[in-house]
Design goal:
The protein has a single domain, classed as TIM Barrel (Alpha-Beta Barrel), CATH 3.20.20.70. The radius of gyration is 18 Å and the shape is globular. Helix 4 packs parallel to helix 5 (about 130-140), helix 9 (about 215-225) packs parallel to helix 10 (about 250-255) and helix 11 (about 270-280) packs across helix 12. Helices cover about 40% and strands about 10% of the residues. It has an eight-stranded parallel β-sheet with strand order 3-10-9-8-7-6-5-4. The protein has twelve helices and ten strands.
Length: about 325
């Protein structure tokens, strides 16, 4: 398998929904929500790419980091790479249904775990729990539920996730105004600090809040009992004119590094992009749109191919910045950090 073949096959199956551009930067699909684009002008999607591109690395080859180890721990789980699969659902609405919800979940989950990583599974509108079945087949995962107004549904999902072997659960608060949810009559909304604390206490698993874009909200989550947060603007799909996620990571890391686990998504297109996010202060990185390309282009094998490619690039980047382990990656490898 090679990248060109993978993309060519995905382009055929995603016709009309994703152009599989040479550079996935949101320019060609701006405003295509539902679909694969960013909302409105598409600037939030584009800012994710721009913010990450502006981060520069300090190349060095005078050191002893010749065989870097990319392994790390996430919620106590050993994984071979800090690059993980972001939660992605509603296949028919956003990608045309070339793969069913079940097929997409199974391809991403299987490919991710074959690569030794961890899948984050989302909450589909139809709530048929095919995502849980995919996780059960793979053995582990992080389940993220939409911030539904009905907390009974959220807690029910947490219970099922516990039964099916999830290693953590959470909500994506950036989905509070999702157009796709509103179109299907699903009530979602923002959460107070007290509500986050109540949800954190409702599960025996580590609780995560995804969709954090400022330090103040990150601190509220930590104080409410969250074990982790994901810095995310929902791929630029919920609010126009936000900043890129890479620009948020350093401030959150300065405040909370070591207190909770800090993850980030948005614009990661290579292992070097992942290296930058880790250097900015993230503990792990989530990848979204590229894995849809992998799944459509080659099923689980296509997803595995991308993970292996990104992890190899991360390892090469660690060699050229003098990092033997993931823990050694910090702002010292950045220029003007």
């Amino acid at each position: 398998m090679d990248l060109l073949t993978l993309k060519a096959e995905a382009r055929k199956k995603l016709a009309g929904y994703c152009r599989v551009c040479p550079i996935c930067n949101g320019k060609s699909c701006a405003g295509e929500v539902p679909g694969m684009g960013g909302i409105g002008t598409g600037s939030s999607f584009a800012e994710n790419i721009t913010a990450l591109s502006s981060v520069k690395l300090n190349l060095t080859a005078i050191h002893d980091a010749s065989t870097p180890d990319t392994a790390t721990l996430v919620f106590g789980q050993y994984i071979s790479t800090p690059i993980m699969a972001a939660p992605m659902v509603n296949s028919r609405m956003n990608t045309g249904g070339g793969l069913t919800e079940k097929e997409l979940a199974e391809a991403i989950t299987a490919g991710t775990h074959q690569a030794g990583s961890l899948t984050w599974l989302g909450d589909p509108i139809d709530t048929n729990y095919e995502w849980f079945n995919a996780m059960q087949a793979a053995g582990r995962g992080v389940v993220i539920v939409k911030p539904r107004v009905n907390h009974d549904h959220i807690i029910e999902a947490f219970v099922r996730a516990e039964q099916f072997g999830a290693v953590a659960v959470g909500i994506d608060v950036d989905g509070a105004g999702l157009i796709t949810m509103k179109l299907r009559g699903q009530a979602v909304g923002p959460k107070t600090k007290q509500q986050i604390a109540e949800l954190a206490k409702s599960t025996k698993l580590p609780f995560v809040v995804k969709g954090i874009m400022n330090v103040a909200d990150a601190v509220k989550c930590a104080e409410a009992g969250a074990a982790g947060i994901v810095i995310s603007n929902h791929g630029g799909r919920v609010l126009d004119y936000t900043c890129g996620t890479a620009s948020v990571v350093p401030g959150v890391a300065r405040e909370l590094k070591g207190r909770i686990e800090i993850f980030v998504d948005g614009g990661v297109r290579s292992g070097v992009d992942a290296l930058k996010m880790l250097a900015l202060g993230a503990d792990g990185v989530l990848v979204g749109r590229p894995l849809i390309i992998g799944a459509y282009g080659g099923g689980a094998a296509g997803v595995r191919y991308l993970f292996d490619k990104y992890t190899e690039e991360l390892g090469s980047g660690m060699i050229l910045t003098g990092c033997n382990t993931i823990k050694q990656i910090d702002s010292g490898i950045l220029i003007n950090s």
